Amino acid sequence: MRLAAAALTTLALAVPVAADPVVVELYTSQGCSSCPPADEMLGKLTQRDNVIALSLHVDYWDWIGWKDTFAAPAFSERQLRYAEAVGSNTRYTPQFVIGGIDRVAGPSGMELSDLIQAHDGATGDVLQADGSDVRVAATGTKGQLIAVTYLPEATVGVLHGENAGQSITYHNVVRSWTVLQELDGSVTTVRVPAAPDGEKRVVLAQAIVDGKPATMLGAVKLD
């Protein structure tokens, strides 16, 4: 599937900065032929100050002939928990999850842009960073405080599988996903460990409902 230039332009437009950025997760795979346009879209989103865009590589495409160099079973499991939250067991690649609750299957630029706009400013000023310390405002909602480290950019030459022969650039590739603390809805402050060399950190606060990921309560970049 090809991504219209107009959709890419829309995603890159400057917009007012929200107190807490909108979290956009892309579930993707180096072995999926439909994923490169979505990977390109995520790259555009990383240019926006009001978005935290994260690329999570799943491992369930590895059997088709190419083992994704960034994939982790935990990311495949997280995507499954999102599906179960809406009564499904079906996962799509590529798939965007916006704000922890809205989903877009495939590289649909205009739908994605509209959902980001709808979520912009919805979280308020929940997380504040002071160096490596993150303060969580009172939300009255139980959830998790999550530290994420990611590679800002990486280019991979895919040798086998559906994308054989392609050199694909990935953006904000998640390398670790760590629950720092269970949240009870009250004010708290947490020290976040340093990221490995070459990686950066963001912190997310996300509601958890019946053991499944739900609404993003807040997000902040540390690096």
Keywords summarizing the entry:
single chain, 223 residues, alpha+beta, Glutaredoxin, 4-stranded antiparallel sheet, 4 helices, 11 strands, globular, disordered N terminus
What does it look like?
- With 223 residues, the chain is α+β, with helices and mostly antiparallel strands.
- α1 runs parallel beside α4 (109-119).
- It is built from four helices and eleven strands; from the N terminus they run αβαβαββαβββββββ.
- A four-stranded mixed sheet has the order 2-1-3-4, sandwiched between helices. Strands 8-7-10-11 form a four-stranded antiparallel sheet, with helices on one face. It has a three-stranded antiparallel sheet with strand order 5-6-9, with no helix packed on it.
- It has a single domain (5-221), classed as Glutaredoxin (3-Layer(aba) Sandwich), CATH 3.40.30.
- The protein has helices at residues 5-12, 35-45, 73-85, 109-119, and strands at residues 22-28, 51-57, 95-98, 102-105, 127-130, 133-136, 143-157, 167-183, 188-191, 200-209, 212-221.
- The longest helix has 13 residues, at 73-85.
- 41% of the residues are buried.
Estimated helix fraction: 10-25%
Number of strands: 11
Please work out how many helical segments DSSP would assign.
4
CATH class: Alpha Beta
- CATH fold type: Glutaredoxin
Task: Enumerate the strands of the largest sheet in spatial order, edge to edge or round the barrel.
Answer: 2-1-3-4
Note poorly predicted spans: 1-6, 12-18
CATH architecture: 3-Layer(aba) Sandwich
CATH superfamily grouping:
Glutaredoxin
Largest sheet: 4 strands, mixed
In total, how many domains does the architecture comprise?
A: 1
Global geometry: globular
Give the CA-CA distance, first to last residue.
34 Å
Radius of gyration: 17 Å
Order of helices and strands: HEHEHEEHEEEEEEE
Helix and strand content put the structural class at alpha+beta
Overall average pLDDT: 91
Organism: Jannaschia donghaensis
Protein name: Putative secreted protein
Pfam family, one: DUF1223
InterPro entries: DUF1223, Thioredoxin-like_sf
